[in-house]
diguanylate cyclase (Aquella oligotrophica), 301 residues
Amino acid sequence: MNQYKATILIVDDTPINIQILSEILKNDYHLKVATSGEKAIEIASSGERIDLILLDIVMPTIDGYQVCRRLKAENNTNKIPIIFVTAKNDVDDEEAGFNLGAVDYIIKPFHPAIVKVRVRNQVSLKLKSDLLEELAQIDGLTQIFNRRYLDGRLPLILDECQKQQQKLSLVMIDVDYFKNYNDNYGHGMGDVCLIELAKCLKKYVNMVKGALVARYGGEEFVLVLPELEKEEVISLVDQVIKAVEKLQIQHAYSKVSPFITISAGLAIFLPFKLDAASNVLAIADKALYQAKSNGRNQLVT
Ligand code: GH3
Ligand code: MG
Ligand code: MG
Ligand code: MG
């Protein structure tokens, strides 16, 4: 198994301090360095993965406390653990550091072996919490996003569409006559079928930048497709519906095809209409219901 090597950002305005910490940590971690608070914030916000920040407090322009405050205030940086590494050995300073959200506070001069284990402990906690977060948003059967993830993410996506004045398509998908499938082929085969469907949906979603697919319920999936024009979405979903039937998963008990098929309903979020996520989903669901009553194996918009 290849071991994940964590990345640590060392922030200090004094190069010799960076050098000392680097010597201690360079064999076990990828290291990044910043010699100012501004640079630290820039690196932490850049989107590349940082697993821990070692942060000096006394620095010109913005000090470590301010850096910490700003990183904790932003969604994309507030989960990075911060250890203050400082000569400020007053209890009040230490308390202030912890109150700002730091996970540890190391006072200089320090003992290298102790820094090593305190860093190792925090990195280990960070990796475990990342793993938990990831597991909490993935469906165990199909390995695509689950409903919890979609419910949390969708309002943020819609906010972004609102800001950018972009439309967004939501497609609700449901497997046709799936109860019959389970009843006749067994639940185990039903599970395999859901896994295959998820793979197929993912393949198409991966063709669209920023798109995602989630398992919304038992045999229901949701596609989120940003920016596309309605005609493009219709064409894509028609392809997906055909592709699913072409998987040729035998379903002798379906009334529409000898194979497993899906029905789909489309809803489009328009930025000037200010629809809530639940509204858009309800519209997609209504269209899906229509697709079912129109005979299944089709998209209704
Ligand atoms: P329709 O075409 O109207 O959608 O009919 P349907 O039979 O697919 O609809 P219904 O909602 O009655 O059936 C959904 C079935 O999906 C019932 C349930 O047994 C099955 N199902 C839900 N979750 C799972 C799962 O995780 N694994 C398996 N194998 N089956 C599941
Ligand atoms: Mg300093
Ligand atoms: Mg259903
Ligand atoms: Mg169904």
